[in-house]
Specification:
Structural class: alpha/beta
Radius of gyration: 19 Å
Largest sheet: 6 strands, parallel
Bound molecules: NADP nicotinamide-adenine-dinucleotide phosphate
Number of strands: 11
CATH class of the largest domain: Alpha Beta
Order of helices and strands: EHEHEHEHHHEHEHEEEEHEH
CATH superfamily of the largest domain: NAD(P)-binding Rossmann-like Domain
Number of helices: 10
Helix content: 40-55%
Shape: globular
C-alpha cells in the first residue's frame, strides 16, 4: 500500500513555524485578495486563505467586487495596492468573469507583490530556468511535499497532466528545472495510459476522475491536484484512490494533499515578499 503524502500535516508544520517567525520578528505581513463575483468555490478558497493568514498572524484583507465590475476599475485597484506600502502581497482569485482579461489584470500586479508568481516577469524567469521572486503556489507546495518525504526528482520521468498556467505549465517547468525528464499531457494527448505507465512521478491537474491504478507504473509517486464535486456532492480528485494506492509507492489524497500545501505556499510567499521589501535576509 502506498504511503500517504499528508499535505495537511506538513501545512500545519509550515504554518506553525511561520507563526513563530512572525512573532520573533514582531512583523505582520499583509496579504490582499481580490475576489470578483460570488462563485461559491472561489468564496470558499478565499475564506480559507483569510483564515490561514490570520492563524499565522498576518493581516489579511479581501476586496470583493460585483461580477459586473469593469476591467479598468480592477486595474485601478491593483495600481492603488501596488503603491500602498502597507500591502506586501496581492492575489487575484481566478477565474475572473468572461468580460475581464485575466492576463491584463495579472500583468498589472507589481512582480514584487505577485504572491502567486503569475506575472509575466515572474513567469518568464521561471520559464528561462532562472529564479522568480516567488514560485506559483500549487507547484511549490507539491515540491515541498515531495521534499518532505525524501522523494528525489532529479533524473526521474515526471508526467504532468494538464497545461493550465496556474498548475500544469509551471509544475512541468519546476520539475524540469529540478532535472526531471518531463512529459506534458492534455486533452489532445493520444494513448494517455501508455505515457502514465512510464511515469516515476505523475502529477494530475485536470478536474476529472481520469487516473486508475492500472494506468500507473509500479511504485510510482502520484500527486492528485484535481478537486471537483461528483454527482453526489462529494469532493473528489483526478485519481481513483483505492486502485492507485495499491500500485503507487506514494500518493497524495484529496482532500488533505495538495490543497493544504497550496495555502502553505501562499503564506510562505507572502512572508518572503515582506522580507524582500524590508531587506530581511535569513
Ligand atoms: P484547467 O485550466 O481546466 O485545466 C485542465 C487541464 O486538463 C487542461 O490543460 C486540459 O487540456 C486537461 N484535460 C482535460 N481533460 C483531459 C483529459 N481527458 N486528458 C488529459 N488532459 C485533460 O484546470 P486547472 O485550473 O489547471 O485545475 C485543474 C484541477 O486542479 C481542477 O480540479 C482544480 O480545481 C484543481 N486545482 C487544485 C488546486 C489545489 O490547490 N489543490 C489548485 C489549483 C487547481 P486542454 O488544455 O487541452 O484543454
Amino acid at each position: 500500500m502506498a504511503i500517504i503524502l499528508d499535505g495537511k500535516n506538513l501545512r500545519d508544520k509550515i504554518l506553525d513555524n511561520l507563526s513563530l517567525e512572525l512573532a520573533k520578528y514582531a512583523i505582520k505581513p499583509k496579504l490582499v485578495v481580490i475576489l470578483v463575483g460570488n462563485d461559491p468555490a472561489s468564496q470558499v478558497y478565499v475564506n480559507n486563505k483569510r483564515k490561514m493568514a490570520v492563524r499565522v498572524g498576518m493581516h489579511s484583507e479581501v476586496v470583493n467586487y460585483q461580477a459586473d465590475v469593469s476591467e479598468d476599475e480592477l486595474l485601478d485597484k491593483i495600481n492603488e495596492l501596488n503603491n500602498d506600502i502597507s500591502v506586501d502581497a496581492i492575489l487575484v482569485q481566478l477565474p475572473l468573469p468572461a468580460h475581464i482579461n485575466p492576463n491584463r489584470v495579472i500583468a498589472e500586479i507589481s512582480p514584487f507583490k505577485d504572491v502567486d508568481g503569475f506575472t509575466p516577469y515572474n513567469f518568464s524567469k521561471l520559464f528561462c530556468g532562472a529564479q522568480p521572486i516567488v514560485y506559483p503556489c500549487t507547484p511549490r507546495g507539491i515540491l515541498l511535499l515531495l521534499r518532505e518525504y525524501g522523494i528525489e526528482v532529479e533524473g526521474k520521468h515526471a508526467v504532468v497532466i494538464g497545461r493550465s498556467s496556474i498548475v500544469g505549465r509551471p509544475m512541468a517547468q519546476m520539475l524540469l528545472n529540478k532535472n526531471a525528464t518531463v512529459t506534458m499531457c492534455h486533452s489532445y494527448t493520444k494513448n494517455l495510459e501508455q505515457i502514465t505507465k512510464t511515469a516515476d512521478i505523475l502529477v494530475s491537474a485536470v478536474g476529472k476522475n481520469i487516473i486508475k491504478g492500472e494506468m500507473l507504473k509500479n511504485n510510482s509517486v502520484v500527486i492528485d491536484v484535481g478537486i471537483f464535486k461528483d454527482e453526489y456532492g462529494k469532493l473528489r480528485g483526478d485519481v481513483d484512490f483505492d486502485s492507485s494506492s495499491k500500485i503507487a509507492s506514494y500518493i497524495s489524497p484529496v482532500p488533505g494533499g495538495v490543497g493544504p500545501m497550496t495555502i502553505a505556499s501562499l503564506m510562505l510567499n507572502t512572508v518572503e515578499l515582506y522580507k524582500l521589501k524590508n531587506g530581511i535576509n535569513d
